Amino acid sequence: MMPSVLSFTAKRRAAQPEQQAGRNVVDLLAFIALAIWLYLIAARGDFWIAGERGFVAPPPAAWPQVIAVVPARDEADGVAETVGSLLGQDYAGEFTVVLVDDQSTDGTAELARHAAASARAADRLTVISGSPLPSGWTGKLWAMQQGVAEAMTRTPAYLLFTDADIVYRPDALTRLVTQAEAKQLVLTSWMVKLRCEDIIEKLFIPAFVYFFQMLYPFAWVNRAGDATAAAAGGCMLVRRDALEAAGGIQSIRGALIDDCALAARLKRHGPIQLTLTDDAHSSRPYSEFQDVRQMIARSAYAQLQYSPVLLAGTIAGMLLTYILPVLFALFGGDAAQTMGWVTWAIMAVSFVPMLRFYRLSPAWAPLLPLIALGYMAFTLDSAYQHTQGRGGYWKGRTQADMGGAS
After folding, report:
1. Does residue 171 sit in the same domain as residue 312?
2. For 210-233, how does the pLDDT look when each residue is reduced to its tens digit (9 = 90+)?
3. Is the pTM of this model over 0.85?
4. Phi, psi of 127 (to 5 degrees)
């Protein structure tokens, strides 16, 4: 028996350095994850506070002319409410609406006209029948281009680009223009409140805005001289002269993430602003898992420039940032477990302000790692759809990787 005992002892002693090396690797990864979150909280533009909400300014001496451009493709569910809210603005200046019916098959144009008639404002709505999509353009941008062409015949001071599912409070346009005029902004964009009623929406929608703010900290976007530029395409008030100087909509004609592409071009010509708001909301539902998946998968791989290397780096980074801390907290050794719990607590606390903005319980906050896992799956699906020739699919169109704008 003595040789067996000696053999077992020798093997145990030989295994100890390997086990210690493994623990050291785990401890190092736990430390890196904690360091990432300390950086995000302390030095990432205070994105997690959700504090960028616009500002109060005195009204301008004269109210400039504004024309809203509404690209609409099969938007029967929400277009009437959107058009009604636009034509119901209490704006003191001249304000009209151009809706581009992008070859809808569900009566979108008729519903828009009926809404205008009900608001007794049919004379302030122009409906354009969109022409077929030319090569090199994404559908939404081509519709916007046609709307801009119509609007430019009236030389407005501002264009309000708005989606056909956005509903505005009556004083929203007044607030937008007031902010734009006060700081001479070339772009004033609101991240409108997305619908957050059903369980799937509560799980994924606040996190969508949270992740967007992490990627594009609004404080950095709003800082003159900072290279960070972003916008929320549902609501963008743009100065006409700045849009022309930036090359117009055609300068970004192939962009899937069109709002951020436009913001990047406009920021070269003046200050821009992106804020959260309670003054407008989206009526578009995301009540099914597939609704959220499609929304993210449409452009996630485009955000990564269709690069497998960036995709792999992103997935690895998300695993380290969101998933490994939970595993360390639940199954790690002493040091790794402590750092895992601290990291998980930090990320949960950072999510609470966005949950409050959406009037949800802080009890959702610890689920952020699980939600991030879902977004990782959506990102991988985006890459898969691209390899299958379905990248950028939206309302019957595949639009990804169409070539860059000049």
Report:
1. no
2. 999 999 999 999 999 999 999 999
3. yes
4. -110, 125
